[in-house]
Structure formats: structure tokens, C-alpha cells
Amino acid sequence: QVELVESGGGLVQPGGSLRLSCAASGSISKVYAMSWDRQAPEKQRELVARITISNDTSYADSVNGRFTISRDNAKNTVYLQMDSLIPEDTAIYFCHADAISGSHYYTLAWGQGTQVTVSS
């Protein structure tokens, strides 16, 4: 079993930055990738960023060039650095730990979610 604890959300003005953290514990040897999703009101949940155990990264088009996902293996923590934030980034952000079977990702665990609000 994998447990995830998120931190770092809050209120920020447009153009500002925030860094989200997701600390993992438990059976982390099963984890192939760590990802961040976001859920905005009345919108579909969106996969924002993913980083694999090989440090391969991928991003949604909506955040590419503004967000950076990274990991600290010594701390079993994944970060999402969010720069040049815009009001459309307002959402609840969830990290999740993923395994892989063939080319299909499946989620092992979810974080509790952290609110990010971008507003002046």
C-alpha cells in the first residue's frame, strides 16, 4: 500500500508561483510514475504532469512551459513547481502514484488534494 501526503497549495496572484509537494510512503517500490491531476469546478479532471522512475516527464499542453515536475528520491517526494500562474489554473490538485502494465498506467494511490486559487 502506498500513502501520499500533499502540501503547498494556497492563494496566489496571477503571474505568481507556487510549489506543491507530494510525499510518498509505504510500498513505493511498486510505483513506476508519479503524477499530478487537477479538478476545476464544472470541468473534467485533467492530467497535468507526470514523472517516471527514469525521470521522463510529460505535461498537459495547458501547462507546458509554466509547470515543472521533479522528484527527490532521498525524500520520496515529488514536486510541482507552478510559475506564471493564471486564473484558469485554479483547481484542486491531486498527486497520484501509478504502476504500469504494458503501456497502461493504473493508479495505486491518491493524495488528499490541495486547493490552488489564482486570483487578484
Description:
The structure is a single chain. The protein has 120 residues and is mainly beta. The chain contains no helices and eleven strands. The chain has strands at 2-7, 10-12, 18-26, 33-39, 46-52, 57-59, 67-72, 77-82, 91-101, 104-110, 114-118. The strands form two sheets. Strands 2, 4, 5, 6, 9, 10 and 11 form a seven-stranded mixed beta sheet that branches. A four-stranded antiparallel beta sheet has the order 1-3-8-7, with no helix packed on it. The N and C termini lie far apart (40 Å).
Q: How do you describe this structure in short?
A:
By secondary structure, the protein is mostly beta strands.
Architecture blueprint of SSEs:
Layout: E1 2-7, E2 10-12, E3 18-26, E4 33-39, E5 46-52, E6 57-59, E7 67-72, E8 77-82, E9 91-101, E10 104-110, E11 114-118
Name its key features:
single chain, 120 residues, mainly beta, seven-stranded mixed beta sheet, four-stranded antiparallel beta sheet
SSE run: EEEEEEEEEEE
Helix proportion: under 10%
- Residue windows where pLDDT falls under 50 for at least 5 positions: none
Number of helices: 0
What gap, in angstroms, lies between the N and C termini? 40 Å
Structural class: mainly beta
Q: What is the averaged pLDDT score?
A: 95
Computed over alpha carbons, the radius of gyration is 14 Å
Q: Which band does the percent of strand residues land in? A: over 45%
What's the story with the biggest beta sheet? 7 strands, mixed
Work out the number of β strands: 11
Instruction: Write down the overall geometry.
Output: globular
